Amino acid sequence: xxxxxxxxxxxxxxxxxxxxxxxxxxxxxxxxxxxxxxxxxxxxxxxxxxxxxxxxxxxxxxxxxxxxxxxxxxxxxxxxxxxxxxxxxxxxxxxxxxxxxxxxxxxxxxxxxxxxxxxxxxxxxxxxxxxxxxxxxxxxxxxxxxxxxxxxxxxxxxxxxxxxxxxxxxxxxxxxxxxxxxxxxxxxxxxxxxxxxxxxxxxxxxxxxxxxxxxxxx
Length: 218
Description:
The chain is mostly helical. The chain is about 55% helix and about 5% strand. The chain has a 4-stranded mixed beta sheet.
């Protein structure tokens, strides 16, 4: 085993705004999809480089080769985990817990998620194996496009689904539950348009780099 990680729940003294952020990340099927954020039970070898968060990650010194500085902030942890998975076992253990305070919803949380998802789009264009092989990203983009095109037909089922799944995962008091569908709509919109923006930026930058290379050769 080269690395070990586990859940990263919000601390007990979190505010309702922080617990709303935790709800958006921890809800199965419609949240982050990150095992650490969802607090999944059990001990298992991870199959996705994004299953464990850097905030709760232990790596053998002999296996740690540093971060890829060409990626920069956001995405460097996924690249590290992908590299470790190629060389050995990376294990998730639900008994290894690090309490991690969430950014308050909506402002601080959505700004952070926007930066993350823009980087996701850029890494997709760059050809990151961890991102291109992540079926959840592609499925999300397809589902998001369908949701936008057929918004009048899906808005009520969407509200019901997000409320039911979110209420099962949340630690918010019941009085705050009616806000869960609205929060998920903002969360998913930020993810969708963030990824699309990152893809566009990545294509533009790649085109600019290719143009610069062709100019240098001429």
